Amino acid sequence: MSANPQQSPPNKSSRPDLVNGPIAKTLLMFALPVLGSNILQSLNASVNAIWVGHYLGEAALTATSNANIILFFLLGVVFGISMATTILVGQSIGGRDINRAKRVVGTGATFFATLSILVAAAGYIFTPHILAMMQTPADAAPYAIAYLRIIFIALPMMYFYNFMMMTLRGAGDSRTPFYFMLLSVGLDIALNPLLIFGLGPVPAMGIAGSALATLIAQSGSLLLMIAFLYRRKHFLALHSNELNYLKPDLTILRALVLKGLPMGLQMLVISSSALVMISLVNGYGSQVTAGYGVTSQLWTYVQMPALALGASVSSMAAQNIGAGRWDRVSRIAGIGVGYNFLLTGALVALLYLFDHAALGLFLPHEGEAMAVARHINNIVAWSFVLFGVTMVLFGVVRSTGAVMAPLVTLFIAIWLVRLPFAKWLIPTYGAEAIWWSFPLGSVVLIVLAMAYYRYGGWRKAHMLAAQPRGLAPDTGMATPAMTAVDEKPAS
C-alpha cells in the first residue's frame, strides 16, 4: 500500500514558512544563516592558511592551496546531487508531501554514503598522481601529499555533512546547519595549533595536523547534529520503522542523478578550470602561486553573499513552486539580485580599501608575494558583483529543474572564453592574461544568464514527472508537475 502522498507537515510553528509573508524579509532571514555558514567555512580555511603560511612556510601554503582546489573539485562532484535534494525536498514541503520528502532523504542518504566511500578510497590511493598532474611545485609536493591523504579520509563525513545541510535548507531550515557549522569551525580552529605544533602527549604533526583537525571537527559536528535532529523529533528524521526509506527509490534516484549531474558539472566546470588556472600559475613559481592562493582565500569571502543568496532563492523558489505560488517566484529573483548588489558590492568596496591589511593576515607585508596578490586583487575583485547576479538567476532557474542552460552558459564563459584567453595570451602578456581572464569570463557569463532568464523556457521545466496537460506555468499561476511518485499524473 502506498503512503498518502499528501501527508501534511507538522504544525506551521515548527518549521520556517517560505511560501507566505513578505518576500524580502523572509529571504533575508533565510539567507543570513546560509551566509554565516559560508563565512565560517571560509574563515576556517583562512585560519588554517594563516597557521600554515606564517609558521610552516610558503611551500606548505602552496601545498594547501593545491590540495584545497582538489577538495573543491571533489565537493563539486556531489554538489549537484545535494542541490537536487534541496529542490526536491523544497518542492515536496511546499506541496505538503512529507512522504515524498522522506523518500528523497532516504534515497539521498544511501547514495551519498556509497559514493563518498568509493571516492575517498580512490583519492587516497592516487593522491601523488593527482598532485603530479597539477604540476605541484617539488618543494610543496610532500606537504600536499600528507595533507590531502587525511582530507580524503575525512571526505565521507564532509559529503554527508553537506547532504544534511542541503536537506535541512530544502525543508526551510537554514539555522540548524549554521549552528553546527559554528561548532565545527570552532573545533577546527582550536585543534589546528594543538595538532600542528603538539602539546604534552599530543605529537607535533605539522601540516598533517591541520588536516586531522578538519577530520575531527567535521565528524564530531555531524554526529552531534544527527543526534540533535532526533532529539528534537525533526519531521524528516527517519526512525526504526521507516528504514525502508533508505532503500533507493529508482524514480527519485533517477531525478537526483539526471537533474543533479548537470548542477554538479557546473561546480566541476569551475573547479576543473581552477585546476588549469593553478597549473598555469604554478609555472611562475611559489611566490606567485602563494600570492594567487591568498587572493583566492579573500575572494571566497567576496563570493559568500552571492552563493548564500543563490542557495536561498533556490530553496525559497522551490517551496513556492511546490505550492503553486508562481506569482512570487519572479519577485524572489528580483529581490535576490538587489541584495546581491548591496552585500557583494559592499564587500568588494571594503576589499579595495583594505586589501593590504587583509592580505597581510596571510603574507609578510613586504615581499614579492604581497605585491603579486594586491595586483591580482585590483584586476579581479569587482567582477564578483556580476558573478553574484548570475548566481541568483541560476538559483531561481534551477529550482524548477531547468539545469542544462546554466551548465552550458557556465561552460561557454569559462572553457570557451576565460581559459583560451589566458592560455593564448600568456606568451604575449605573461601572467596578466591569467588575471584579466577572470573579469572577461564574468561579463560573458552575466550576459548569457540574463538572456536565458528573460527568454528561456525554464518555467516549463520539472523535476520528477512529465508536465500534465492543461497546465501553463508561463501564465504565472500554475506549477510545474511535481506529482508524487506514487501518484499518477492526471489524464
Automatic annotation (TrEMBL):
The chain crosses the membrane at residues 69-92, 104-126, 146-166, 178-199, 205-230, 251-278, 298-318, 339-359, 379-396, 403-421, 433-453. It is found in: Cell inner membrane. It comes from the Bacteria. It is a multi-pass membrane protein. Keywords: Cell membrane, Membrane, Transmembrane, Transmembrane helix, Transport. This is MATE family efflux transporter. It comes from Herbaspirillum rhizosphaerae.
